[in-house]
Recover the amino acids of this structure.
């Protein structure tokens, strides 16, 4: 039997070692100050910041406008690394939340300040700081969300995470050890996720009714006539900003009464030129009171799409007809402007959401007397309802 020939394998030659990796710039290179780098996989994003020999890595967060974003009860996780550890005696992380108002001192009003020591020297004779220090702070709960309003005055709620490195000075002093601090600061977003406790039911059996009777205190010359509005909408009263809110609307009045209202409250407008007798819209009201400065701002988030029912015998118009009429509409409401946070309230800033019924007036800011407007408080959620059953 012929013996099988054996083919020898080629000799193994070890590969050359890989070059050493260094995040430090080489000669001729320059590091851009605080240039964050982030990697995102779904809701899990990571960011890397580098400044002045310090590197901060944040992970397990969301990304919003290229900033790390955290929700209710979130933990700020990551690590801190130092290029130069000589003479470092302490490293700390500080989370701060401040309210800023244009025209006020630049430091703003601090409403939260939490500091955590990441490392501290226990001796006076040169204990070396670790090259990498883990960071974990459970701090984001029961706080107002990140917020910004540009008009009528700029107001903002801003969160920052500061890394503070304390170094011993070279100049000795008898009986006293001098030190100096270097730090880097990064902006965070705080966006609590809010969901409705139950879904929006599309069937009128699960709706509620709000009755609004318009009877101005000022004499309109037609006291025998009123405008009675019946507004039906889902009783849950908590709606996801991205979903449609169905409603039904019935108005019982007379065109001449609306005509007299227009003459009284809208003296500079021709009643016959009013295009919509009734409007429905979502409004967010922001109230600010910081260090003696107070103002409010109304923003229309979405306008209702209404369709007059075919059973109505006349078109909804303002005229001098004294014949009683009943107009009925089916409609839908939906936020057209982005809603990043739900309503909140602090001693300085509060935001509230409403469904507004507006008689004769187009969607817009609330009037001081509210004679032609009906305000129904609701809450806007940022996330859709989930069936956990």
């Amino acid at each position: 039997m012929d013996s099988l020939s054996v083919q020898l394998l080629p000799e193994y030659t070890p590969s050359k070692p890989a070059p050493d990796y260094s995040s430090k710039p080489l000669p001729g290179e320059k590091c851009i100050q605080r240039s964050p780098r982030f990697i995102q996989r779904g809701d899990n994003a990571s960011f890397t910041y580098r400044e002045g020999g310090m590197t901060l890595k944040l992970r397990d967060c969301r990304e919003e406008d290229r900033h790390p974003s955290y929700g209710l009860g979130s933990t700020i996780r990551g690590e801190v690394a130092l290029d130069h550890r000589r003479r470092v005696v302490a490293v700390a992380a500080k989370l701060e939340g401040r309210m800023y108002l244009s025209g006020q001192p630049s430091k703003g009003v601090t409403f939260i300040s939490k500091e955590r020591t990441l490392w501290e020297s226990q001796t006076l004779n040169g204990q070396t700081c670790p090259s990498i220090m883990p960071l974990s702070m459970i701090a984001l709960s029961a706080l107002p969300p990140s917020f910004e309003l540009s008009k009528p005055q700029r107001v903002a709620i801003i969160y920052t995470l500061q890394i503070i490195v304390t170094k011993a000075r070279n100049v000795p002093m008898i009986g006293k050890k001098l030190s100096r601090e270097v730090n880097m600061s990064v902006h965070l977003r705080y966006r609590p996720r809010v969901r409705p406790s139950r879904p929006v039911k599309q069937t009128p059996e699960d709706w509620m009714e709000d009755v609004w009777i318009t009877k101005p205190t000022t004499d309109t010359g037609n006291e025998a006539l009123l405008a009675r509005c019946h507004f039906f909408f889902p009783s849950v009263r908590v709606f996801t900003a991205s979903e449609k809110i169905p409603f039904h609307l019935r108005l019982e009045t007379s065109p001449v009464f609306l005509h007299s209202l227009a003459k009284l409250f809208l003296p500079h407008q021709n009643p016959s030129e009013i295009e919509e007798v009734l409007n429905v819209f979502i409004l967010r009201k922001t109230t600010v009171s910081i260090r003696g400065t107070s103002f409010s701002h109304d923003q229309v988030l979405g306008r209702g799409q209404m369709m007059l029912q075919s059973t109505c015998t006349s078109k909804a118009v303002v005229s001098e007809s004294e014949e009683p009429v009943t107009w009925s509409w089916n409609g839908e409401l939906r936020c057209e402007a982005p809603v990043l946070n739900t309503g909140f309230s602090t001693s300085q800033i509060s935001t509230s959401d409403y469904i507004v019924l507006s008689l004769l007036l187009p969607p817009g800011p609330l009037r001081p007397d509210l004679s032609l407007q009906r305000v129904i408080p609701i809450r806007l959620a940022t996330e859709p309802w989930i069936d956990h059953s």
User: Anything to note?
Assistant: Residues 255-265 form the longest helix (11 residues).
